[in-house]
Amino acid sequence: MRPVTMKLWIFKSYLFGFIIVVTSGFVLEGSQTSYAQFRKWNAGLNGSLELEFKTDQPNGLLLYTDDGGTYDFFEIKLVEGALRLRYNLGGGAQILTVGRDLNDGHWHKVQVQRNVERTSLTVDGVTQSRSSRGKEFQFGRLSSNSDVYVGGMPSWYNTKLTLLALPSVIFEPRFGGAIRNLVYADEEGGLPRRQEMKMTEFKVN
C-alpha cells in the first residue's frame, strides 16, 4: 500500500500542483499550477451545485465550467472578500454578488441553483437571483461541455483560449484555501452527489 500512496501523491503534484487531500475535502495552495478537476456538471435547465470553502485570501477563482468555448459559462470567484458568480446562458453575461469578508478563515457554504432563465446564488443562506435574456436557456451540451475546474485552470488552456467561453478566466488569481462537499449531478437524470477528483491518467503498475 505504501508504494501506491507515493505514486498517487507524485501524480497529483504533476497534474494539479500542490494538493493536500483530507477526509472531508482538500486544500489548494494557490500556486500557478494548483487546481482540481472534476466531472462535468449537468447544469441543464434546473441543475444545482454546492460547495463549502474557507480561506484567508480575499481574491481567487473558486470554480469554472463552460460549454466548450461558445457562449455559456459559470465562474465563481472571491473578489475582495465577496463571492461573485458570473455566468452566461447565451443572452449575455450576468453577475451576482453575495457576502463580504468571506476570507475570515471560517467555512462558508455556496449554492448555485438553475430554474430555466432564473439563476440563484446563495452564500450562508443569503440569496441573490437574476433572470437571463434570450429564448434558449440550456447550458451547452453535456457531451461538449468542459469539466469542472476548482481553484484555477490547467496551464494548457494558455495556448487554447478559443476553447474557453470566458478566456479571461485563465488570468484570474488562483484560490488558496480549503474546499469540501462539492455536490452536483454529473449525468443526465442523475441525482446530486458528492464529487471526487478526476484522476483518469493515474495508473498503478
From TrEMBL:
It holds the Pfam family Laminin_G_2. It comes from the Eukaryota. CDD domains: LamG. SMART domains: LamG. GO terms for cellular component: membrane. Residues 25-205 form the Laminin G domain. PROSITE patterns: LAM_G_DOMAIN. This is Laminin G domain-containing protein. It comes from Diploptera punctata.
